[in-house]
Design brief:
By secondary structure, the protein is of the alpha/beta class. About 45% of the residues lie in helices and about 15% in strands.
Length: about 290
């Protein structure tokens, strides 16, 4: 069985490549340019192509049985996703596992959520066997906060005080590999969530404990957050993130105990917690 992985050089995609290899699958990774030596483990094929170039996508899928479809958050995410799905459908692939987002249909005003809703709809409508993975907020997003956590002692992500669904990327990777190498996953949609909801004050408290210093949650000033993000990313991306966090605050983004139990059943173990993630990160930073 040979599986094509898109987004293979990113955190999730690279993890999926490694996990599939551990489970005995043959893996082809789609990359826009020739990767540096050592980017992928030995035995991984590399197909050069771009998800906006249908010809290169079709070429990358030649001889492929299944597809792990991950689209980066970009202005043309929907077009990329539909080109990849349309190519898989044309070639009659045996399965597509698509990385979507938790509760996507309730946030159609958030650009990258709306794109994922549209791709999900195509998957369900047009006949290629599929599995949809719907993760919450990635715990590993907070690794980018090292300087502000260890320096001024702030937790700046405006995730609110009521708690949102969040998940460790390592559990996402494992779920993706299971869906592509196991049986019984066709037509299934899985919510990928950690054992506890993540809140701003709760995250600040966790980092206070593992770093041994006071950490303050900065709250939910969405205008200020978007303005700050524009200094680090394109305006469309800052708008997208602001829209997402504000929508979480207004509508909620909470998982349920049943979501957690079903995810644990899929994994065969309890999902990893934010506390364990933060403790590991703090230890690595201090080392």
């Amino acid at each position: 069985m040979k599986i094509l992985v898109t987004g293979a050089t990113g955190t999730v995609g690279a993890g999926v490549v490694a996990e599939l290899l551990k489970r005995g699958a043959q893996v082809r990774a789609l990359a826009r340019k020739q990767p540096a030596d050592g980017t992928f483990p030995a035995g991984v094929e590399v197909a050069l192509g771009d998800l906006l170039d249908p010809v290169s996508v079709l070429e990358a899928m030649q001889g492929i049985d299944k597809l792990f479809l991950l689209n980066a958050v970009t202005p043309d995410e929907l077009t990329q996703g539909l080109i990849a799905y349309g190519s898989a459908r044309r070639l009659g692939l045996k399965q597509v596992t698509y990385l979507s987002v938790f509760r996507a249909e309730q946030f159609r005003d958030v650009p990258h959520f709306a794109s994922k809703v549209a791709v999900e709809s195509a998957l369900r409508e047009f006949g290629v066997p599929y599995t949809i993975l719907r993760p919450g907020y990635f715990l590993q997003n907070d690794l980018r906060l090292k300087d502000v956590l260890t320096g001024p002692g702030l937790y700046p992500m405006p995730i609110g005080s009521t708690g949102i669904a969040a998940v460790d990327v390592r559990d996402i990777v494992e779920a993706a590999a299971l869906s592509l190498t196991g049986s019984g996953h066709e037509g299934k949609t899985y919510n990928l969530v950690g054992p506890h909801l993540l809140s701003g004050p709760g995250a600040a408290g966790t980092w206070s404990k593992v770093l041994g210093k006071p950490i303050r949650y900065t709250g939910e000033n969405f205008e200020e957050y978007e303005l700050q993000m524009r200094a680090h990313m394109p305006g469309w991306s800052a708008f997208d993130l602001r829209s997402m966090f504000q929508a979480f605050s207004e509508r909620g983004f909470a998982s349920t105990g049943e979501d957690v139990r079903q995810f644990a059943d899929l994994l065969g173990h309890a999902p990893r917690s934010y506390e364990d993630f933060a403790a590991e990160a703090a230890q690595a930073w201090q080392a």
